[in-house]
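Exam revision sheet. Question 4 asks you to relate a sequence to its structure. Input first:
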Amino acid sequence: MRVMIVDDERMATEELYDICTSHHAIREAVTFDNPADALVFIAQNSDVDIAFLDIEMPIMTGLDLAKRINTISGDTKIIFVTGFKEYAYDAYQVNAIGYILKPYDDDAVFNEIEKAQKMSDTIPKKEVSVKTFGYFDIFVNNKPVYFSSAKAKEFMALLVDRQGGAVSTEQAVSALWPDREYDETVQSLFRKMLKSLRSSLSDAGISDIFVDERNQRSIDVSKFTCDYYAFLENPRENVDTFHGEYMTGYSFAKPTTTKIRNKFYEIKGI
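Answer key, structure tokens:
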């Protein structure tokens, strides 16, 4: 499990970090003293299983932070850590699963971790599949993902075509707006597109397939199945899934389309 700790008190953060990382179920723990930084992190890494949040913090309270986290990553379990009992009612109003009083008790922290683990184990896993032969679409439990921005959907198609390879902002702009200069205007369009993309993926509950690190975007290919990837892995077995078209309507897909067709013709003996 992946844990995030947000507390402006350094010693309290270090103590909770030590307790969490000593539990066998925790594979990683990250800490923040600024709630805004924590929000940026979880927007880019929605596979955070538990968020331990202090309540009284400058800039943004833990309660407000929890509301934002619930919007970005609905599967993240919120556990409040505080020195004040009076916030307990407010904590449960934002769907917190636990409330730990400082100073920390190892058993209390472990109990909350194990509670969160049991809850995660009972949540059905989302089945995500990507269709590239013909028109491009993403399905979650056989329902198509809705993209409010056509460019956001096209960008996801580009990332799928790259098979997990990183794409820089300049490369993405060149593919999505091939006739535009790489200036501030088109960069602004790209940022708006990214915001729309994150919103669409979050609404579908699959934010974790999108990776955004240091001006490099990619997808986590372990999070979904894909007809194109299956064809690459075993072209003879999957040859009949291809019907002549790949990501119809996207110009960047033409080289891949040619490659798939050539393999298709080779197998079929055409």
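Marking note for examiners. The two ends are 50 Å apart (CA to CA).
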